[in-house]
Request: fold
Amino acid sequence: MPTKHFFGLEKNTKSNQLKKDIIRYFLNNGKTSISELAKEMELSVPTVTKLINGMNEECLISDYGKVQTPEGRHPNVYGLNPTSAYFVGVDMTRHHLNMALMDFNGDMVKTEFGLLHSHENTPESLDRLCNHINNFINSISSEIRKNIINISLNIAGRVNPESGYSYSSFYFSEEPISSILSKKLKHNVVIDNDTRAMTYGEYMKGVVEGQKDVIFINASWGLGIGIIIDGKIHYGKSGFSGEFGHFPAFDNEIICHCGKKGCLETEASGQAIYRTVINRIQNGESSIITDSIKDLKDLTLSDIINATNQEDTLCIEIVEEVGATLGRYIAGLINIFNPELVVIGGRIAETGSYLMLPIRSAVRKYSLNLVNKDTQIELSKLKNKAGVYGACLLGRNRLFDQ
Reply:
């Protein structure tokens, strides 16, 4: 399904390119005056005035009135018209779906968090996913629905957002999954890696405050990283960058879901915590988990996180061990990338200082002092919202990067 028509901007003309550049400026910087915009774009004021007037008539942007200045005339400021375009983001985790509708300005209009959905790599699971998304879209007013430009879906693992293929999930045919979903949902669908979406959500709307070199650690059931270099997401050649969890780290016999042994996430991830908690309880160690979970087959990662935050000694010890291991390898990332900021996010980050303290300690121990002194380590601000924010924002970006 082709990209939905958007005010004729798909036509490759000089005027349309300038309009896209103006839109990108508003996306990244917010409202501004014509004179400031002309200065930033290195265009004459009459040229920018003509473009702005045309885009205003097309309802792409809005006149937000005059702004107060210390002296001289008070200029009018312009910005994106929030109702001219909408974007749906879908963040698919192991057991839940988070969905959101975002307007053109980047503000959330509607959200739905924690919808139960057991992800399986089957056509039936894909159909259930489509049903959930359709129900969400059908709950939106028809006036807004007609202005939905695309749906952006986060998928864990190896995802090529340009080709539309996911090689870790829903790789059932030669047809790209983005194309299959576009037909099923009757909207243009784009896909991206879940960690990369979380990274971009945190970069645009979260804890990042002006830093341009950022690494986001997604410590969830698996383990991945998102990389931002000089303010731009790093994708790699095929969109597969960030497979931190599959770094060959251990000489163990634990088989990773990728099929190899010794991957970092076999001992530093949510699944590692889950496996260790069950093994140690079965070996007779005590935990408040057994007060509420009689059959360990019913145990979830959420139960372990909750127990940790309720000061369960066993769970705290295991989380801290994972934090120390993770911190050692984050130190390696800091030595390689020399980032301004490392953001710790994902489900395991919900344990807060139980994870953060051993990470910080290990980073100090194993990274180079001259390198790590310039690096802040912070918890995610958006938490479980990072993925769905990122999905919407990446969907918005994709429209103007084509």
